[in-house]
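ok trying again, last paste got cut off:
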Amino acid sequence: MPIFQQNADKRYKQAARKLAEGQIEEAIEQLDSLLEDEPNHHNALVTLAISLLEVQENLDKCDQRTVRAFELLDMAAELNPEDPVPIFNKAVCLRKLGLLDDALATFEEVLSLEERHTLSILHMAEINYELQRWEKAVDLARLALIRDPGIEDALFWVKDAMIKGGIIEDDLNLAKDKLPSRPPSG
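nice, full thing came through this time. structure:
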């Protein structure tokens, strides 16, 4: 590995450590500096994008940091078109911004690269639940659970979606059906 790449990787690790320690502004400065020297450093592009979003108290699609984060994620995706990570992060950001249909389409892009990407499937299930697309939400939740049974706790909303989608009956209605009927008065 060339010496300049080793140096870039060392600088990247230092910036990533700053980010993990919650020193987001410092991490942003270090990542910016790294990208001045190595503009195609894939991990730095993605991490800087995440940092720019993380530093914002309230995400705003018009904020310069958000605009730049999307640009950085697009650059990272172009540099390594087989890597689902920048696309996944873009989809998560779109979801956080409330652009749910755009987020769904972007999660689909992730799945076109890695069809077993459980987190994308889980996000899609949750978005469909938020959009009251009950059956689609349940189908995606089942798929996510098949792929990773450990996410069961994240699927607390599935029963509600199944009831609202008419897939199962509400326990209260079932309980009422099982109550003995009152004899006619008279």
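cool. DSSP finds ten helices and no strands in the chain. Confidence is low (pLDDT under 50) at residues 174-186.
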